[in-house]
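Structure ticket #2291
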Amino acid sequence: MGIAERRERDRVGLRRKILDAARELFMSEGYERVTMRRIADAIEYSPTAIYTHFTDKDDLVRALCADEFGRLLGALPQDAPADPVEWIRRLGLAYARFGFTYPNHYRFMFMTDKRQQEVSGEGQQAFGLLRAAVAKAVAEGRFRDENVDAMAQVLWSSLHGVVALLVTYDPQQFPGVPAMPDLVERVIE
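Resolution: structure written out below.
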């Protein structure tokens, strides 16, 4: 391995180290409380090292979100079954499974105040799968509402709501009675 290749490997490794440390700090301490200096301390580098990879904290958050949404996109089924409603079910179950497998990542992606951030390309692609399934279902007359964007948003919002509640609260904390064990499946249906 030559010097240029080793430098590139080290650069990529440092970027990954920064992202991993920032992710952990944002999840444990919250976005507002974490500074670039705090991240630098966690990886035992100077803040300058971070600024060679990211222009500011918002740039770092955008990179983290792209990472996380890339992970979500990879967890969603990419092959579309013939039945669009079955496709929607599979997407919903995979989405929920991602949230339950990576609850801290899910909270960071969807439940951290990052209003200044745009949705990453990977996030757009993930939602695009749901939208494509809904469009196919609408084209086949499987939904009464023919507004594809509204239906995709309703489905995603409903599922996000139940996943957010289940990664935030213990099922015993639900009002009235504990959360139903098949709550996700009921929401998907």
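Closing remark: The chain is about 70% helix and 0% strand.
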